[in-house]
Amino acid sequence: MKIQHTSLYQEMQSMASQASRVQPEAKVPAQATAATSSAQFGDILSSALNNVADLQRDAKSKVTAVEMGDRSVSLAEAMIAKNKSSVAFEATVQVRNKLVEAYKDIMSMPV
Question: What's the CA gap between 111 and 83, in Å, rounded?
């Protein structure tokens, strides 16, 4: 399952809207839900991180090719690849920040 960095935010929004529409009567056992959702979330997060790493590798190779004078890669291609990797990395940092914030909120809840 390959997830593009632009569709990750849309996927998260659709999951949030689905979660808000869940009926209270239609509860699933907590253990089954936790195991499935954590596995899916982990897969999605891993896929997104791999996608960011691929974009960064591609940008680095294109920038290096332009610096070395390779005529098969234009400056515009290198700049676009660099900006794509930059945006993907910034989005990843924002997701990390939100996860850390959510973790802190959960840990500060009284038991």
Answer: 45
